[in-house]
Amino acid sequence: MSPGNHLPSGWVTFMFTDIEGSTRLAQLLGPEYRPVLREHRRLLRHTLAGTDGAELLTEGDSFFIAFSDAGAALTACLTAQRALATHDWPAPDAAPRVRMGLHTGWAEPCDGEYASPEVHRAARVAAAAHGGQVLCSGSTARYAAPLPAGASLIDLGLHRLRGFDDRERLFQLVAPGLELQFPRPRTADAVAHNLPSQVTSFVGRKPERAELRRLVERHRLVTVLGAGGAGKTRLAVELATGMVEDHPDGVWFVDIAAVTDPGLVAFAVAAVLGLRPEPGRPMVDTLVEYAASRRMLILLDTCDAQPSASAELISRLLAGGGGTRVLATSRESFGLPGEVVWRIPPLSVEPRPDGAESDAVAMLLDRTMAARGGRQPAPAEAADLRRVVQRLDGLPLAIELAAARLRVLSVGQLAERLDDVLGTLDAGRDDLGPPPPEHGWTGNQQDTVDLVAASRGKAPPTPAVRAMRRSAGERHLTMQATVTWSYRTLGPRSARLLRWLAVFAGPVDLSTVEWLLDDDPLDPLSVLVDKSMIQAEPHAAGGTYRMLDPIRAYAARRLVQAGEERAARDRHLAWLAHALRRAHLGSDGRPVTLSLYALDPLAGELRAALRWCATGGSARAGLRLAGGLDQWWRERGLAREGRLWLFRLYGRMAETGEVVPEDELAAAYHMHSLHAGADGEFTEELRYSQRAEAAARQAGDAGLLARVLAGRAGPLIDMGQFAEAERVCREVIDWAHERDVVPDALLAVFSLAELLWRRGALAEAAELLGAARPVEAARPAYRGRRSVDMLLGMVALARRDLVAAHEHLLVALRSRMTHGFHRRACDTLNAIAVRCAAGGDPLTAARLFGAAEAIRASMRSTPGICGPYWLEQQAGLRRTLGDAAFDDAYGEGGELGLAEAAALALAVEHPDLGADSTRFRSTGPVGPRQLGSRTGPPPDGPPGTRLTRAARPPTAGDIS
């Protein structure tokens, strides 16, 4: 080394070095520190001896050296770092980590020293380095050519050095034998955050952001919980970006997903904060000491990768000082004192109150435009966009993946393919390479942790560990990878419960889960809720548990792979059959009036069960299930869907050769005939009615045959063969009387009454209906329809007895709405419209006609035998009001929902009772004006008086 009195002048390269963490090292080694310090000095002087460097100052663990040649200075640093790294130190913890900084500037020595700002700049460059690192300024990089063999310089960008107003471009020396990865340089302009920059816009979640911000401002630990792909990271980063100015010491993002050893969690956080290990001191202690006096927010992402280690670190950080806050994302909570758990909801799939699209649709629109080169979806695709986001349960990752599929599919095609959620969303992504780091650590930061771990005596990561790390980075490339990330953490019981719950189409309650497993599910269910794989939804009557569709699709695949699908789905079938039976029974186990509202919640489960029956299960079981919702299909406007399921089940029978008893076939064919009639397929209606008759005769069940034959009039009426239909009805009724199965022929009674009403035989129709009332009241499946009151109301309208018509029709409408018979309620709305027109209220009549027809059209339901009558009445009403007034009122009615239209009809005032009202007449022979009388002899009186009692408004006993 050149003597100190031969100092270079002109373009001088200044070199500063010191030992990082020297104070901690001295405390650790005690008396042994001095030999280490001497050995460190000896190595530096030995390696610098062959250079032209002039040693100006050696103080403690620091060197200050001046070089006339920048290249020689870099060579000296490289040689010195290699010598330090390969030296045999007394112990690994005793190895000094030396940081070195170089700067080249114009300087002249004076009295054996330099009085130049360039010296201070060089000192600041060295202060920005980390132990084992060599940094140099831009001017040194410019004058250093040629570099040492195998060496290169990495541009670390512009930095503001402490005490200097301008920015200095810093470079790092890279060469074999030197560490490669370090935290960011310790400079004055170190950014106050390392939050990842997003390449896509953040859509929606305004209420969620506001709520989460309030929690973070009030609490020191907030954990955002949610299923994989729910958008936890994106929301947390978006929130933290807006809080940088609130935390003077920064907002720091750490992705725990890539940490494959619990012992490295503290090192991961330290690497982000720019901290290096101190000799003989646990990294967590260094972190706690650093954080204690600072006001900062640490965003720990994907903590479920290392839940225990993350919890321990968070606990230590929060206990160490009051200025540090932690915002964590995870699929399960930590259970720490003071932790506030906030579950992220899926994106809203419902339109906003102002009429704008939901957040989920807005996000899909945004991503679809990007996928299609900026082209917006056509307005005609709006309905399919809503279908897609509803099918995906508003899960952000699923929406992102769905948008990518729209490069090759229309929105309608995508919506049709989402029965296979995973297959559709993950298509074409099996052979993707590792993703670019969208958020979290860079590769440099990860290697830093590996090197730090190695310096602490930990083995380098194995290929398997590195593969796991890659999978952590790729977990959001596909839905399957996302859910697998959580599934692999489940125990056997929890994993089995998740698989078996996949057979359900919607939310389930605790008793249903118990039925499914035939075991106490509380423990595994709690695990699934804690890990955000099942969503718990509390209600006043008890909680329910729901699985998002993408997770359900994954669990269903696992169910098949485990060989458990048949057992689980057969168990689901048994539960559904039990639920259908319970819908017909009261709390005491006795039959009650059927309410179709009790069947509505089972619709999704029914479809899932029927799909299984038609593809892999029992067709016979499927026919029974479909029959359990016989009236529901038609009353909900789903007759066509019901027919399609039956066709699929017939195909399954042919495929498997499964034998179905004739009585069950007859019931299915009869139901099919009724569905076809409601759907306007009259030829199919007659064909299946004939098949039902043939099967019923083979079964030899008189009651079953009566039910089937009673439906034969339906296709004849639909095809306009009224005389033949009347003949068939009379024969069936007589045949049922002979075999004492009259209740089973009730449908024939109602059909005959309609036919009699149509041809004006009102007295006979009224007498027939009077006799049918007790039969209807005794059948729980029929009495909620109030067909007797509906038809008696029609008879009363034909007689222009508005009092009787009003009372019968309102009773029928109220019962039909109460018990969910919506298609039949439309008939009653039409009838009440006729009553309003006859009673001098044409505007209400027109509104009710408009409502009834719009609702019927939405149900794809045929008007039946009354269709021509409704049209005739509407034509007369149009003549009364005039085209414009009628059309306006009719259009207003068309905007009403069924409940609104029913409320309008039920609010119609009772007709004024004049002196000649039938209400005040004494009991006697039944005449045209007596249909509405409430008085009369008991039901066992002569035939001529039975109608008067039968025509009375019902009592509570009739509908119990």
TrEMBL record:
The record lists the membrane-crossing segments as: none
Q: Where is this region: Disordered?
A: 915-960
Q: What GO molecular function annotation could you give as one example from this UniProt entry? A: ATP binding
**Keyword ATP-binding annotated:** yes
Q: Which domain of life is it from?
A: Bacteria
One Pfam annotation reads Guanylate_cyc
Q: Does the keyword ATP-binding apply?
A: yes
Record keywords: ATP-binding, Nucleotide-binding
Q: Where is the Guanylate cyclase domain?
A: 13-105
- The protein, known as: ATP-binding protein
From what organism does this protein derive? Micromonospora rubida
| InterPro entries assigned | A/G_cyclase, HTH_77, Nucleotide_cyclase, P-loop_NTPase, TPR-like_helical_dom_sf
